[in-house]
């Protein structure tokens, strides 16, 4: 953000992390767009009807991808046939095209380049389930053009199912390939960029302001920089843990709950406090959040507790346990 401000950019394009672009819109940047797949180097590969009964995963498994490494290890421990490692674009395309399943796991809830690499090679895409803010559901239809998983158990179930049902896997791979050729070739995305820079209207699907968080208003108790710091702290834990539990006081600044809604494995609860009101800012902004009563809140070990500074004495008196307490 500091870099974008220092350079006074006239246009900002996010090719993958759509869920982070709302920060730039809220910071006052006027031309912000999400144009996924624009940086893809497409490697076409002949369509294959007969494929090896295995999973293919081409990518990093080091310290920056802890969840991906855990899931690959889990698949190996279960005796499932997975080929995992690094390789050139050409090697990756060949493996995706020849394998019954092409496995993907995002870094941290992001719509990544591998999604397009797999589709572009005609592979059957099995990827982790992302948030609505990621934009994946704007591009592809789950169960028809790709398949998603949300947990370790669901991953294992779907891998076993599609290894045993090659016709179903091939049909989904074909639909994903057709969608890629029709909508997601990189030259199409580059044309979108050129047309936009030339002053033409941007297709609404690429508008960063389509993220409803850009029009939700502000709470004077918390600055944009404070919200970003809170988000980064939670995002870092989300990177390493399978699930992150967050308890939020109903009178805490409502933007924080909306900010972390793009972390797909974050479980957010609002405290059903005796003094809670239906007009509390958080309840108004996020009526979908699960409520938890005070007795359960005090008996649960939370990863994060987010509490308004004006009620800080209650946090200690109720002895709510949390790895991190964020007071705003």
**Overall number of structural domains:** 3
* SSE ordering: HEHEEHEHEHEHEHHHHEHEHEHEHE
Q: Based on CA inertia axes, which overall geometry fits? A: globular
Low-confidence runs of at least 5 consecutive residues = none
Number of helices: 14
> How would you write the strand order of the largest sheet?
4-3-5-6-7
The CATH level-2 architecture of the largest domain is identified as: 3-Layer(aba) Sandwich
Radius of gyration, taken over Cα atoms and rounded to an integer in Å: 22 Å
Average of pLDDT = 94
- Class by SSE composition: alpha/beta
Q: CATH H level of the largest domain: which superfamily?
A: Glycogen Phosphorylase B
The CATH class of the largest domain turns out to be Alpha Beta
Range of helix content? 25-40%
Layout of helices and strands:
Elements: H1 2-7, E1 12-14, H2 21-26, E2 32-34, E3 52-58, H3 66-77, E4 82-85, H4 89-98, E5 99-103, H5 113-120, E6 125-128, H6 136-139, E7 147-149, H7 152-164, H8 166-183, H9 186-197, H10 224-240, E8 244-248, H11 254-259, E9 266-272, H12 281-285, E10 290-293, H13 294-298, E11 301-307, H14 312-317, E12 321-327
Parallel strand pairs: 1-2, 3-4, 3-5, 5-6, 6-7, 8-9, 8-11, 9-10, 11-12
């Amino acid at each position: 953000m500091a870099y974008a401000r220092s350079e006074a950019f006239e246009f900002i394009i996010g090719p993958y992390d759509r869920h982070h672009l709302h920060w730039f819109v809220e910071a006052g940047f006027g031309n912000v767009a999400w144009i996924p797949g624009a940086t893809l180097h497409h490697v076409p590969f002949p369509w294959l009807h007969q494929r090896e009964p295995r999973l293919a995963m081409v990518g990093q498994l080091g310290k920056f991808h802890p969840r991906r490494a855990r899931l690959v290890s889990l698949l190996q421990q279960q005796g499932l046939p997975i080929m995992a490692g690094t390789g050139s674009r050409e090697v990756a395309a060949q493996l995706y095209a020849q394998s019954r399943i092409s496995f993907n796991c995002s870094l941290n809830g992001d719509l990544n380049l591998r999604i397009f690499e797999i589709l572009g090679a005609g592979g059957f895409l099995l990827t982790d389930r992302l948030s609505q803010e990621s934009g994946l559901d704007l591009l592809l239809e789950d169960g028809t053009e790709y398949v998603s998983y949300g947990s370790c158990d669901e991953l294992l179930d779907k891998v076993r199912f599609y290894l045993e049902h090659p016709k179903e896997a091939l049909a989904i791979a074909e639909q994903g390939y057709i969608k890629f050729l029709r909508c997601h070739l990189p030259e199409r995305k580059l044309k979108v960029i050129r047309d936009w820079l030339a002053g033409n209207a941007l297709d609404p699907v690429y508008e960063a302001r389509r993220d409803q968080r850009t029009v939700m208003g502000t709470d004077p108790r918390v600055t944009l920089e404070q919200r970003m710091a809170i988000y980064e702290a939670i995002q870092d834990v989300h990177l390493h843990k399978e699930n992150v539990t967050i308890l939020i006081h109903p009178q805490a600044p409502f933007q924080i709950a909306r900010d972390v809604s793009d972390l797909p494995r974050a479980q957010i609860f609002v405290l059903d406090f005796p003094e809670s009101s239906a007009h509390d800012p958080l309840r108004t902004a996020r009526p979908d959040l699960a409520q938890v009563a005070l007795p359960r809140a005090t008996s649960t070990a939370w990863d994060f507790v987010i509490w308004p500074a004006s009620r800080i004495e209650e946090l200690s008196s109720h002895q709510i346990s949390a790895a991190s307490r964020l007071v705003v």
